[in-house]
Amino acid sequence: MSQVTSQPSEASKAEQFLPNNLSLPLYVPLNRDFQRDFEKIFRANANDLTTPAVNQLRSATKNYINYILENDSLGFDESTLNNFALAYKKILESRCNLKKFESIGADSRIMDYLKTSQPLTLETLDMYHSMDKPNYEEILSESQSFTSTTEVQNHLKLDEFYQFLRGIIFVLKHPEQPVPDELADDEDLGISGGTISLKDPLTLNLFVNPVIATCGHTFESSSIRQQIQEHPSGVMECPTSGCDNRLSMSNLKSDTLMKIRIRCASKLQQTNDDLDIVH
Ligand SMILES: [Zn+2]
């Protein structure tokens, strides 16, 4: 063992007391710092960047959709919508992963480890040496509460916004078909036959400003509002046969997907007309 002679004598003295095979575990002597970092990274929502990211992405997507709808000459771009959907999926994936990290914070091996808060001294050095640092990867892999893709898929199935986006991407090419129920990757399997009418059932005119009722039936805003107004109570039964839902002004909302269907149908029609001219 070579003495470092250029060091101040205090330091040289200290060195003589430390074992020369000293290899401190990475977490020493930062146990408390580590605990603080752990709390910051794994716990609570202190570091949750996914919520603002979700909100931002939703509002960007809505702005895009509104912009296209407000400009009659424009059509929807499939790759743009796919990018929005993909980004949204990635963010939800991150959120699931964060939750998984948070959940291992409750693991007793980690709890016990974090409770150790003795200051590092020569006396406690052995204790630190013998302490088992929790193996996060091992604990994570044992954690059965999430299985990445299925977990994310389940979130997406229940996510209204994602399903809306998925619906739009589907109607780009199939403006008059019902959006297949879940499922996903094989769109063709889900097509149940039948078509979606792009016409107001009351006037039989193409929709211009469609509104959807809570029962899922769509009407032209002006025609259904006129009918509701004719009822002194302000409430009427849904005019769709077999539907006994009660309609009032307040439970009608703009049917964005129908507006998109109409725009897409007209763009497809335009493309077909253009092709006819070419031939
Ligand atoms: Zn109805």
Automatic annotation (TrEMBL):
Molecular functions per Gene Ontology: SUMO ligase activity; ubiquitin-protein transferase activity; zinc ion binding
Compartments where found: Nucleus
Lineage: Eukaryota, Fungi, Dikarya, Ascomycota, Saccharomycotina
Originating species: Candida orthopsilosis (strain 90-125)
Residue stretches making up the U-box domain: 197-265
Single biological process term from Gene Ontology: protein ubiquitination
Keywords from the UniProt entry: Metal-binding, Nucleus, Transferase, Ubl conjugation pathway, Zinc, Zinc-finger
GO CC term (a single one): nucleus
Pfam family, one: zf-Nse
Protein name from the UniProt record: Mms21 MMS21-SMC5-SMC6 complex component
Highest rank taxon of the organism: Eukaryota
Coarse class of the protein's main subcellular location: nucleus
Pathway it works in: Protein modification; protein sumoylation
Listed InterPro entries: Nse2(Mms21) (IPR026846), Ubox_domain (IPR003613), Znf_MIZ (IPR004181), Znf_RING/FYVE/PHD (IPR013083)
PANTHER family documented for this protein: E3 SUMO-PROTEIN LIGASE NSE2
Similarity-based family: Belongs to the NSE2 family.
